[in-house]
Amino acid sequence: MTPPTGENDSRERMIGSALELFSAHGYSGTGFRDVISHSGAPRGSIYHHFPRGKTELAEEVIRRNSANFVAHIENLRPTDPIAVLHAYVEWSRRLLEASGCRAGCAVAAVVLEAHDGPELFEMASAGWSAMADGLAAMLRASGVPRQRASGLGTLTVASLQGALVVCRAARDIGPLDAVERELDHTLRAAIDDARS
Amino acid sequence: MTPPTGENDSRERMIGSALELFSAHGYSGTGFRDVISHSGAPRGSIYHHFPRGKTELAEEVIRRNSANFVAHIENLRPTDPIAVLHAYVEWSRRLLEASGCRAGCAVAAVVLEAHDGPELFEMASAGWSAMADGLAAMLRASGVPRQRASGLGTLTVASLQGALVVCRAARDIGPLDAVERELDHTLRAAIDDARS
What ipTM was assigned to the predicted interfaces of this complex? Predict the structure, then answer.
């Protein structure tokens, strides 16, 4: 990899700032001014770096979030479905712990607030499908039938997204712990069923 | 019940409009102007009816949402935990179907975007805890041990919240169907375990 040029570096910093700000304050709640001020980028550089404006910034935020998530999973290299589950939970836990349960998923914030054409929704949906499919593939490799494996992948992704919202409201990580415990139980039971 | 006076009627309409607009466009994404225009209330009446401004409006939206949810459940009168689950799913399904998967939970929108002091978060959290506790009480009455009943209540509430976000991104009700199927399976298995 070549290191980013100064020009790119400023753009990359703006994307990182927007990711953080969307996570904490939402998409509509984050203005270009906030991104400029958080990233230390020069005023006026937003439309230079993101000619299509906030939609383009949001696309890059979703891309960055996916890349970060993939790096998180590749770092943990889970080799069975239960390990995949805990790697997914760990991602959510870090988002909450880093913010004292005051920030969550930047992509969910975009989905709840954006009305900027279908691309953002398609990108968000593709990311969540890939997460669900990754777990489903591991479950199928452990013998779980296709429809259940797919359903459990979706249940896991949905319940982790929801846990982020419930934990933020409660200012407490407890609901994520409960979700992790029940998903662990449910996935193990599905694998045991498949073996018996 | 006495019918609302004209004065109250205008306030009630504004709350209903805000509930609908928050569900579709988020909390930051909904301005007072939108609420006035959607409800047909006279300009300038917002601060008359909501002297504490948007925070007070959001409090009333959360209250109205809880009241609507309680009315929905009382109407269905579920008498066992599986029926409670499907009543909860039906609430989410109606939100999605009414909007072509373009709107979700107004309370989640407030939680993801508000920074207006702890009251809104406490109200949101109390509502979700009541939902989780209602299902947990039914599961305990069916013999499911306390910790699992509580965990399954939390899993159900979190996964339905998350399904709303995932379905909106996908513009498709499929993820909610999958979550319903897997929760049904998981709750029945917990009840069977308790009986055996």
Answer: 0.94
Question: Which residues of A fall within a CB distance of 8 Å from B185?
Answer: 148
Split into its structural domains, chain A has a count of 1
What pLDDT was estimated at residue A163?
Answer: 98
Query: Under an 8 A CB cutoff, do B161 and A165 touch?
Result: yes
What CATH number did the domain enclosing B50 receive? 1.10.357.10
Residues of A in contact with B116 (CB under 8 A): none
pLDDT in tens, B107-144: 999 998 877 678 999 999 999 999 999 999 999 999 99
Please indicate whether, in this complex, the C-beta atoms of A155 and B159 are within 8 angstroms of each other: yes
pLDDT of residue A1: 45
Q: How many other CB atoms are found less than 10 A from the CB of residue B147? A: 12
Q: Is the pLDDT of residue A4 over 60?
A: no
In a domain, A77, yes or no: yes
Contacts of B115 in chain A (CB under 8 A): 25, 29
Residue B159 covered by a domain:
yes
Contacts of A18 (CB under 8 A, 6+ apart): A30, A35, A57, A58, A60, A61, A106
Q: Number of CB pairs < 8 Å for A and B?
A: 162
Where does residue A116 rank: exposed (0-12), middle (13-18), buried (19+ CB within 10 A)?
Answer: middle
Asked if B26 and A28 come within 8 Å (Cβ–Cβ), the reply is yes
Q: What is the pTM of this model?
A: 0.95
